[in-house]
Amino acid sequence: MNAHLALATTLNGSTKVEPVLVVSGLAKTFDDRSILSGLDFALAPGQSTALIGANGSGKSTLLKCLIRLIEPSDGKIEMLGRDVRGLAPRDLRAFRAQVGIVWQRHNLVPRLSVLSNVIHGVQSRLSGPRAWFQALAPAEVRAEAMLCLVRVGLADRAVARVDSLSGGQQQRVAIARMLMQRPAFILADEPDASLDPQTGEEVMALLLSLVREKGLSLLMISHRLEHTLEFSDRILGIAQGRIALDLPTADADAAGLRRFFDHQEAS
Amino acid sequence: MTDLPVPPARFSHRSLPEYVAILLVLALVVSSLAATAPALDKLSRGIARLFAPSGMLMQMFPPDFSRIVPISWKLLETLQMAVAGCFLGLLLAIPFAILATDRLSPHPVVRHFARAVIALFRTVPDLVWAIIFIIIVGLGPAAGVMAIMVDKIGFAGRFFAEAMEETDPGPQDALRAIGASRLGTIVSSVFPACLPSFTATSLFALEKSVRGSAALGLVGAGGIGVDLKVAFDLFNYDEALAIILMMLVLVIAVEQGSGWIRRKLI
To answer: What is the complex's ipTM, to 2 decimals?
Structure first.
């Protein structure tokens, strides 16, 4: 077991925990251009981990590789106890259902209602027309979707068309949809990128509360230094396609992290 | 006093191949007109005959509405042919369009095949389809419905595919990442995004079907066209005018109705 793994799997000195994600030797090449060149890290469950790095350092590529929205070129990914790269298409669908993603853009279906969009999250475990539109959904699915909306503070907007909501509200709907998935792991790709500072902070606080209250694991790409320090337990920094920084947030200082937010220096 | 700037040349410089291409297009237009356009003297003689006391136009007036009841039933049959053919065509156009769309097609070979079928259905005129289906199912409205259906698969298939091609891929990627099935992704994210475009295309298809279905009877595929052909064949021009006027009312009513629906829905 390498040093990263040992660090991630050991909590409180002696208590060993099973890592929720183990990445070893992960590489991704696009047309002879190496984006990720042998990443190694492991994450313990129930933690919020911030992934930082300059533009083009491969953060988003890494996130997409983890659930094979982009196929890695090499390396091993073990997530939630599954060998991700070895999954057949049907098993991959079942695996993805366990991983909630919050995108930089909310990626909701604009002409549909808030409730229908949240109910789409149930497509991870329910197929057919009952999971397509709120009007066709079973009562228990509708009730669960309303609970998810209560969790993000938007229960009163259930029937509103999603494109009539503000950017922050739409991101909350996307989080409600993700909750509807009942995920065991959350990947977040700059969830606060398109939001004003205050709304961004609220969204980040909401994600962290899910980690704290539901014990979910969160790996988020962060582009704001202050959010990285406030809403993560651990920080991973990527540079030149490799893990160049790995430390608990409590040990991090703003000056040391700044180079990962500066395009000129880090790349 | 400052010098005034020199305005640019009126026409940009063109290369020799461009001049050749322009000349070829002009030659094609001129030769086509010379070969097929009617001679002016022939045209003027024909128009004069039309307006003569025994000419067709004079015999058309007043229109003869004495057979208004049977003609109305035929008109209803024409509308029913259009609605049934259009409905079936639109329904079948959806799977063809999905298979023809880059992002949604399961395989490039399937995509090329679906596009070829749509192009074939669109390229062959509906009158030719009507003749083909008369051979298959015999004379009558069933052949007309089939002809309209195939024509609409070609028409709507192309526009549906273009609309789906232009949708934002973000929501589809998000649902795919959730673990949604291909069908679930299409129905719950692509279709809602395409709804305005699908509605507009469907209403245009209905208008086109109503106009087309009137002509299908001319080859024996049912509807009011049969009566129109008989009226012309028997020189009953006044009845022919009555049929044309009633067809006009039907087409205008459908166009107005679909325009109203378009404004309400989109």
So the answer is: 0.78
Chain A environment of B174 (Cβ under 8 Å) = 101, 103, 107-108, 174
- Polymer length in residues for chain A: 267
Which residue of B164, B181, B188 to mutate against A (max A Cβ within 10 Å)? B188
Q: Kindly state the helix (H) or strand (E) to which residue A92 belongs, with its residue range.
A: helix A89-96
B229: closest CA of chain A, how far (Å)? 48
pLDDT tens for A58-98 read 898 999 999 998 999 999 999 999 999 999 988 888 898 89
Nearest residue of chain A to residue B266 (CA atoms): A111
For chain B, what is the HEC assignment? CCCCCCCCCCCCCCCHHHHHHHHHHHHHHHHHHHHHCCCHHHHHHHHHHHHCCCCHHHHHCCCCCCCHHHHHHHHHHHHHHHHHHHHHHHHHHHHHHHHHCCCCCCCHHHHHHHHHHHHHHHHCCHHHHHHHHHHHHCCCHHHHHHHHHHHHHHHHHHHHHHHHHCCCHHHHHHHHHHCCCHHHHHHHHHHHHHHHHHHHHHHHHHHHHHHHHHHHHHHCCCCHHHHHHHHHHCCCHHHHHHHHHHHHHHHHHHHHHHHHHHHHHC
Restricting to A residues 156-185, those with a Cβ less than 8 Å away from any Cβ of B are: 174, 177, 181
Please indicate, yes or no, whether the overall pTM of this predicted structure exceeds 0.80: no
Nearest to A50 by CA among A256, A221, A246: A221
